[in-house]
Amino acid sequence: RAYIRSASKMMRDRLSPGYLELVRELGKIADAMGLEAFLVGGFVRDLVMSHKNEDFDVVVEGDGIAFARRFAQVHGYRVHSHSEFGTAVIIMEDGFKIDVASARFEYYASPASLPVVETSSLKMDLYRRDFTVNTMAIQINEKSFGTLIDYFGAQRDIKAKAIRVLHNLSFVEDPTRVFRAIRFEQRYGFSIGKLTSNLIKNAVKMDFFRHLSGRRLFSELKLILEDENPIGAVDRMAGYNLLPFIHPDLDFGPEKQDLFESVKEVLTWHDLQFMDDSYMKWAVQFLALFHGFDQDQVDAALLRLEIAPKFHDLFYEHRQYGRQCLYRLEREDKMVNSELYRMLTLLPTEMLLFLLARAKSKKAKRRLTRFLTELKGVACLLSGKTLKQMGIKPGPIYKKVLDAVLDARLDGKVFTFEDEMALAVRLINDANA
Ligand code: CTP
Questions:
Q1: Ligand 1 pocket check: which of 129, 135, 185, 224 to mutate, most ligand atoms within 8 Å of Cβ?
Q2: Are 142 and 31 in contact (CB under 8 A)?
Q3: Using one digit for the tens of pLDDT, what is the confidence trace for 143-163?
């Protein structure tokens, strides 16, 4: 039997007015179509736990696609639907998305020819989900707006801070749930329940991950590594012996844990300093995870995870070149700004941050932070256009002059536009002499 209570106050208190209105509008369309509609999954879990989450997942008892289309039509939004799954995505003009799924009444014959049973389609839909904490629903039809329905003890498990599967075959159905269990556990500071933990150990022992595609494994790992606390999660993966599914030699010893701590500090520093999260956090963590691997080992891991070729440079050329850079940064006595710039400008942010995490000496750390904070964005005032206006014939001389002017600026030898012009003229005259 379901545990039912009102969550409408919670909705009013914790949801911004615009989103609350949106949910009411969804409910009105459901009413007009005579359908029962619910918010479900991660949104409800996070609402109950007071975590920010504005990913709306709606389940409709009936035709979810027709519901999504009607809602979109009334409000002038777009819809993408997948008829084979009965799912649709409503896309609002600002790009905000709402996922809609259909739950249909199901009739199934129990074993031993007992009578055919009819079950609430919502309940069946929720029963197929991964963990109890994700099985709550909130009705959004006007007459019962905000009714929270909890069939499987989600609120009990949230109180107990436990991640538990709903049935023993959950990881057979979908082995990626093993990684999801760890991610939720670490994100919320919960613990994986005893039985669930044993089922994970069994999944490892029986090698449920053999048939898991690299793409799915990678996307789960990426989510783990981008979450708040990847160290705890990687430690748990190591504890369950899950790392060998990525590569047989992968470990998480004290040295690597220190490296992860150091990466965490660097990323926190970077995000505060630049307010920029356009780089790939997961890639920095992967560099840390694969630290100590030779090229063949990295090769095998990238292959297992089906990591797209566009990322390969980072793990091959940049990784190798980065290692040489760090060697020089740690050892060379004198290094002027232009030299530092020329060396490090060839590396992407992900590698620079990883090198900063690896740097041992104050000198190397200072050099890397100097590049990131002061030098990386420097540009000269002169441009190719200026050279053209000066009547210089386009050719290799352009790059030579512009590089030399930028170096002079980096090293504090020119300040004004006139300084740069004078230097350019001198260089061009020298070249023509
Ligand atoms: N789900 C599942 N098995 C999976 C993936 C998802 O049962 N392998 C279910 C979960 O119950 C989840 C819902 O589908 O609540 C939506 O999935 P997703 O958006 O990935 O999860 P969220 O719970 O919203 O997690 P997050 O906060 O990380 O987005």
A1: 129
A2: yes
A3: 999 999 999 999 999 999 999
3-state secondary structure 183-198: HHHHHHCCEECHHHHH
Percent of the chain past pLDDT 90, that is, above it, reads 89
Domains for the chain: give ranges and CATH numbers.
3-160 (3.30.460.10), 165-245 (1.10.110.30), 246-378 (1.10.3090.10), 384-432 (no CATH)
Q: And the tokens for 44?
A: 């409800």
Ligand 1 mean position, distance from CA 66 (Å): 23
Q: How far is the CA of 122 from the centre of ligand 1 (A)?
A: 16
Cα 120 to Cα 39: distance, rounded to the nearest angstrom: 16
Q: Which long-range contacts (CB under 8 A, 24 or more apart) does 359-368 make?
A: 359/326, 359/329, 359/330, 360/330, 361/330, 363/329, 363/330, 364/326, 364/329, 364/330, 367/329, 367/335, 367/340, 368/329, 368/344
Q: Ligand 1, closest atom to CA 135?
A: 11
Closest CA to 192 of 236, 225, 226, 224: 236
Alpha carbons 268 and 254: distance in angstroms, whole number: 21
Q: What ipTM score was computed for the predicted complex, to two decimals?
A: 0.93
374 lines ligand 1 (CB under 6 A): no
Please name the residue whose Cα sits nearest to atom 26 of ligand 1.
Answer: 42
Please give the distance, rounded to the nearest whole angstrom, from the Cα atom of residue 373 to the centre of ligand 1: 38
